[in-house]
Request: fold
Amino acid sequence: MKKAGGKTALKRSKEGDEEQNQIFNFNRKPADEDKDDDLSDSEDSVYSGLEDSGSDSEEEEGSDEEEGSDDDDDKMKEKKEGEVSEEKKKDEYEHDSSDEEDIRNTVGNIPMEWYKDFPHIGYNLDGKKIYKPIRNKDELDDFLDKMENPEYWRTVHDKQTGSDIVLSDDQVELVNRLQRGQFGDVNFNEYEPMVEFFSSDVMIHPVTNRPADKRSFIPSLTEKEKVSKLVHAIKMGWIKPRRVEDDGRGRYYNLWASEDSSILARHKMHLPAPKIPLPGHHESYNPPPEYLFTDEERALWEQQDPADRKLPFVPRKYSSLRQVPAFSQFIHERFERCLDLYLCPRQRKMRVNVNPEDLIPQLPKPKDLQPFPTTRSLVYRGHSGLVRSISVSPSGQWLASGSDDGSVRFWEVCSSRCMKTVQVGGAVKSVAWNPNPSVCLLAVALDSVVLILSPSLADKQVILSSERLLSAQQEGEEPAEGNGSVVWSEAEGEELNQGLRLKIQHPKAVHQVVWHAKGDYLASVMPDNTSHLQVYIHQLSRRRSQNPFSRNKGLVQCVSFHPIRPYFFVATQRSIRIYNLVKQEMTKKLQTNSKWISSMAVHPGGDHVICGSYDCKLSWFDLDLSTKPYKMLRHHKKAVRGVAYHRLYPLFASASDDGSVIVCHGTVYNDLLQNPLIVPVKVLRGHVMTHDLGVLDVTFHPTQPWVFSSGADATICLFT
Reply:
């Protein structure tokens, strides 16, 4: 039985080899030629590795030896049987159309790595081991094979049998088609017309004619029970119905659909696109003649930049509408419109319907702010030149004026009578009455001299105290300036009879003179960019002079003393500096935002300053608030020449080259949180424009709400 079994196994293995080769032998040769090769191959594959690898058990070794001896005895018999059965096999497998996989190895669909440590690679149909073929190839042999074997690129390794298979051309084409994502069958048509089993045509006979069930006409009791349970659960609150959340996916909205105002009203920031302006007469194919371009207009249109042209086209005239050609700029115009729609930002202007009168600040009426000067009461005539400066005595009874005719006149305020005229021998730039009521002195600035006059227009007691102040010179004291740039001298002879008492000689022309509130100090201004000697402060009782600044920052225009505190205001061209005379340091710098300051006045309370400028501005500063103007008034048409505060009433005035004096009401509150109330109340006109000059100086009466103004027409006006 063992012999027979061995022969049967051998035969089956041979048949399996033939079948395998018939399936995987892609370089097909005739069966006769490959007969011997197949036998040898199969013997190799079955019996390969018997010497190399040991068997699993001793019984297997014994059976293998017996099988080997049986084969040696019956070789001749096998040859005969092989020749007899060859014809059979040839007929049997000639038309084999089986396309199944190689089923000789029966291990199934498992990873072949599990057999990598065993000498066999699986089991055949009879349960015998299929041994691995002898492979002595290393990487060098593989490389040589790669270089020399022209079929190397189409050779694949079969893991189930451990052999190399050479693919045919059809198989390579099949692999390429599958790699390209095409169908394996070349003749398969993926675009075949669909066979409509249920066509759109209504057929005479139904597909099924089975009568409907009875249950399709009766409501379902099961569903009714389920629905009633759900309704009860919803009523009890056990089930809360889900809100349908529309995520908006798969929905597409037409943005440019007809815009419904009710829908768009819900969008707070919706801004409708501006409509294209409707075509006018220029766009007409037969416009009126006045809309057609002349030759000059056509040439001008062609020279202009396209962005600057009023019309993007030239109007033309056609006899009929069918002769009008297509607009060449149509696509460009549509494109520009699209760009405007999605690129130009549209901003919502929150237009508030406000009554224009509500925007005007609620100022009090001028008649509620009386008293203030309204009418020209008196005109003081007598000067023959420009009256550049005026000053009122502390008592309010006398008025002093200095003119370009070289005279200083003293007027009685109530009667406009000239009480005294003093010829000083030069154009008077500035006059200032001593504010101390116990003395009667006047400072006059002309050329490079400051004169101290005693007009003797008071009672004897005041005149005596004035003389005593002038004669109280302390011997042995030198002026503060060591180089003697300021020289004090007494008047002599005829000058004494006219009222001159002292002369203060300066190195340069003096433009302004101003007194301290106590009446012992006065300051003089000499505008000069080239020198630091621009401001001097003189002490009358000691006859001393000093220059408070080692250097001046800018061209000094005017100065003023603080009415209460030891502060000194210096106005340069564009700013006002405030100095502390005790600490000898600058405490504040006011930015006027003006081009050129002309005049300055300090409020009697000391916390507010006004300054006029040649660029028609009047600036009010609140010193506690900011270094920038609290209010800018631009009421004048020409340069502002002079400004003044009233000592008692909440009034201030400004004089300008336009020939007017504007009186304003300026209430200053004790409450620091409340801003000053500034109301213009009256425009006063009384001077005639002369040589493009109007009003040159303005000052208030010390006790009455009256204002004096001096003009280029050589007159002085009193407004009450």
The chain has 13 helices and 33 strands. The two ends are 159 Å apart (CA to CA). The chain has a mean pLDDT of 79.
